Amino acid sequence: MNKQSRLVTSTLLLSACGLSAAAPLTLADAQQMAAVAAKSCAASGREIAVAVLDAGAQSLLLQRGAGVGPHNLEAARRKAYTALSTKSSTLALGRNARSNPDTVNLAQLPELLLLGGGLPLWQGTTLIGAVAVAGGGGPEIDETCALAAVKAGGFGTTAADRS
Known about the structure:
globular; Beta-Lactamase; four-stranded antiparallel β-sheet
């Protein structure tokens, strides 16, 4: 079996098992996204905190602007964890949870933070991590800056996004 045949066979086996051969999120990806998020929010006159987690919820990058309150770094990390864990935008999740009596208690789970600014990172149909912004001046602003970072990284925010 030649190298190309082995690659095709490996990809088919991974797919059959529900796994993917998507490249893992790298520190370089995280740094690029953090820079874009910071630049995006700076255009609105805001400094921010940014967190990028890999698919295993391990921190790849935690960054806080000098003028941002220290609590925002933990908020960004928890927003990223929430987006990764729930595979959804934290802005949408928070709004949906507050409007539905069956899910309102999601806010009581210790690591989840239902504030806007956290987005999952999808590479095709594979969840590869999450990015989150905090301290930008509100949930919509945080989400907008995080979305700029996702797009700059070439990732999607849902499994349906093909980047």
